[in-house]
Structure formats: structure tokens, C-alpha cells
Amino acid sequence: MIAIAIHGGAGTLRKSDMTPALERDYKLGLETALDAAYAILKKGGTSLDAVERAVFELENYPMFNAGKGSVFNSQGKHEMDASIMEGTQLRAGAVSGVSNIKNPVVLARAIMEKTEHVFLSGDGALKFAKQEGIAMEEDAYFYNEFRHQQWLEIKDGDSFQLDHSEKKFGTVGAVALCENGQLAAATSTGGMTNKKYGRVGDSPMIGAGTYANNRTCAISCTGHGELFIRSVVAYDISCLMEYKGLTLHEACNIVVYDKLVKIGGEGGLIAIDQGGNIEMPFNSEGMFRGSINSKGERTIMIYK
Asked: What confidence tens digit (pLDDT) does each residue in 29-52 have?
């Protein structure tokens, strides 16, 4: 049994602002990532390889706020975060506050597999990346005129924007189940436009934005990171399944539609369990998402 789900962010994606051309471009990015990852699973590849490949493709697609499409921080630079986790031994790797890394998810996996650590940040993470020959790019590679204009509009104030449209959380992520029963999850983001002070959201935090455990589920979140951190969203869903015996559907509904809503936490997540069941709940107007379930049925959606 194999299955996979991906997301490209959630938020206030009003249909009135979504032109047919824009919708086509977003869906193309989702389809490309979904197909590349599913091909790995069909050939007997691991869930870890599949989620890394899905996020890798989304990081290379400038429509999403990760990798090449990352937003500008208060200094006019790019600070990217990513994480990856596998559910067999609960190994995980994460990175935050890095610039010029072409694919932060690749660096996160290298941290997991080639160090004794889980989380590296800033200059230290960059030094490790260079040591391991992780692909780098100049600032120009990450430059996007639309994102740059957005930053220019607010750069002199103390406000920040959650992404390139009104209240859109452009994090990308993937969860997968491979034929040997292993679960994995990965998440990557460029964070918030005009973010200051080295701000880090939930995406690289194991248990908040990303989690995988073969006994329960694999989760990748997208939303207002501060609220997802405070709610420890990804691990909370796993705990509800492990300690209360809830199904994936029940656990996701409690966290996304009740616990998060009560504290003003907007966003969503993708989740998968050992049975290949997929959940993609969100409490915002829309969420870029796609999946191929255990029956081979394919879904690409933006709105509810």
C-alpha cells in the first residue's frame, strides 16, 4: 500500500482574486511535485525519498513560498526553514534561518543522516551545507519581482505579511506511506515577508509543523506558525491517536477545527496514517493541496 499528500500553503485565497491562469500555474506546480514523488513510491522507493522529492520540486517552483519562491525578510534577504522526519526510528533533521541554500529540505535530510543533531541554524547550518556540498545559489536566483514589491510596500514599518497574497501561508510540505509501511513527513518555507529578529515559525520544529511516527501518522502543517508552535499541532494529532485511540480523521478535526480555532490559529495540514488514510483539513478559505490515495485516486484542489 502506498499513498501521498502534498500542500503548497493555506490562507485567505479568495476565488475573486484567482484568475484561471494563476490557478493553472498553481495546480501545475502541485501536479509536478505529486507525480515525481508518487513515481518513487510506485517503484518501491521509501516514503522518506518521496516526501523529500515532493518538497524539492515545490521549492524549485517560484509560485510557492519555499526555496526559489521564498519571501523577503526585513533586510531584503531570504531566510529559509525546513524539516524532515521518518516514522520508523523517529529520526529527524531540521534547519532554520539559512540563505542561498537551493533546496533546504535536502539540507534538513543531510542533518538527519550525517550528524548527531536534529536542528542546525544560521551560519553553522550554512557551514555544514558547504562541507557536505549541498547545492547553493546566488541571491539573484531567489529574486522575485512580485515578492520584492510586496516587501518594498511594508519594509519601513513594523508590520509583516504572511505571504504574497492577503493572509496566505505559503509553506510547502508532503507526507507519505511507502509499501514497507513506513511513514515520513517534510516541510519547507521562506517564512513571513518583512520578518525580523531571525524569526522562526513552526515549519522546522519537530512536533509543531512536522511529525512522523509509524504507530500513528505523518503530518505537515501550514498556517500562522506562532499559533501552531503554541499548540504543538503535529504531535498533538499523533498523541490523540496514540493515547486516546482516535482515528486520524477524528484527531485532525479536533485540532484544526476546535483547538486551533479557539486561539485564533488559522491554517491547515496534511496527514496520513498506517492504513493509507489521508486527511487534508484547513480552517482558512483555501489550501493548495494534492494527494494520491491507496487506491490510486488523485486529487488536486485549492478551495473546499
From this structure: 999 999 999 999 999 999 999 999
